[in-house]
Amino acid sequence: MKFFKYHALGNDYLILDPVDATTLPDKDSCIRICHRNFGLGSDGILYGPIASNCADFGLRIINPDGSEAEKSGNGLRIFARYLYDCGKVGIEPFTIDTLGGIVTCKINKGADLITVDMGRITFGRESTPVDSNQDTGPLTGEPIEINGTNYTAYIADIGNPHCVVPSKEISQKIACTDGALIEIHPNFPNRTNVQFLKIIDRDNIQIEIWERGAGYTLASGSSSSAAAAVAFRLGLCNESITVHMPGGEIRIEISSKYEIRMSGPATRVALIDFDIEALNFNANQ
User: Fold this and answer.
1) Which residues, other chains included, contact 257 with Cβ-Cβ below 8 Å and sequence gap of 6+?
2) Percent of the chain clearing pLDDT 70 (strictly above)
3) DSSP assignment of 39-85, as one string?
4) DSSP letter for each residue of 147-194
5) 193 CB contacts (<8 Å, ≥6 apart)?
6) Which residue has the higher pLDDT, 283 or 260?
7) Are 74 and 8 within 8 A, CB to CB?
8) Which tens digit of pLDDT belongs to each residue from 32-43?
């Protein structure tokens, strides 16, 4: 199997084009392919382009644990860059269909910056969209205790679920310990992505990320979208926010209806010929 590897601020994905594989590998095979010791190593697999009745291209997103993700901001930028590199798109806007909804992408000339209209953020358990007819006052959080620490969690969804946790101090260690437990907390029966959020100033935030199905992540486009939207809804930031992560920065623009526009890079890494011998593995490995 032939894979194209890209990263978006250190969040790396393997692209498998249906031209090279008529079917997506099964769950166990995807887990092995993504494994950083027994496989190629990645934060997921992007399978596409596939046919779509409602967009220019369709895309499936597979997490390294074999589960399927609804949406990935970094994955979408990477996939857009792949389409550009293959000559399937130019600098005109185009649409991609995901399980989490249809997004619109635009690539700058030279492909140094990719912009994705991610859709509209919804807040809370009811996932009710915010529009001009609704109250856009302060967002209500919910208490959650993890490892003896009392947090206030804010629920946001942009086609995939997020739990945003504001904190004065954030770190990789906190994301890996408390974030891992929040992902599988009973409050989230379908699991959730987790962002620990630190406000820098009105135009800048910092986040540490624990991704559902992937674990600790250097950067995330959907996490940046959710965290920025919560910061804005709480009145802590302006509508134009730079999100700082260990892997780099993403720019988020938030409309009055909480529609999110995300901008950031995607980098080509390698073309890899994967040997199927690597799939002959012991189930205990």
Assistant:
1) 120, 129, 130, 131, 132
2) 94
3) SS--S-EEEEEE--SSSSEEEEEE-TTSPEES--HHHHHHHHHHHHH
4) TTEEEEEEEEESSSEEEEEE-SS--HHHIIIIIHHHHT-TT-TT--EE
5) 160, 161, 162, 163, 183, 209, 210, 211, 212, 220, 222, 223, 226
6) 260
7) yes
8) 999 999 999 999
Tokens in use for 173? 């260690």
Confidence of residue 128 (pLDDT cuts 50, 70, 90): very low
Give the number of residues written for the chain: 285
Instruction: Please give the share of the chain, as a percent, with pLDDT higher than 90.
Output: 92
Considering the chain, tell me which residue range(s) the CATH 3.10.310.10 domain(s) occupy: 2-118+267-275, 120-261
β-pairing, 114-120 vs 259-264, is antiparallel
Q: Let me know: does 9 contact 248? Beta carbons within 8 Å.
A: yes
Please give the structure tokens belonging to residue 118.
């991610």
The answer to whether residue 245 scores a pLDDT higher than 60 is yes
Residue 100 · residue 159 · CB < 8 Å:
yes
Residue 14 contacts residue 5 (beta carbons within 8 Å): yes
Task: Classify strands 45-50 and 11-16 as parallel, antiparallel or unpaired.
Answer: parallel
Hey, what CATH class is 2-118+267-275 in? Answer: alpha beta
- The superfamily CATH assigns to domain 120-261 is Diaminopimelate Epimerase; Chain A, domain 1 (3.10.310.10)
Q: Which residue has the higher pLDDT, 130 or 209?
A: 209
List beta partners, residue 255.
none
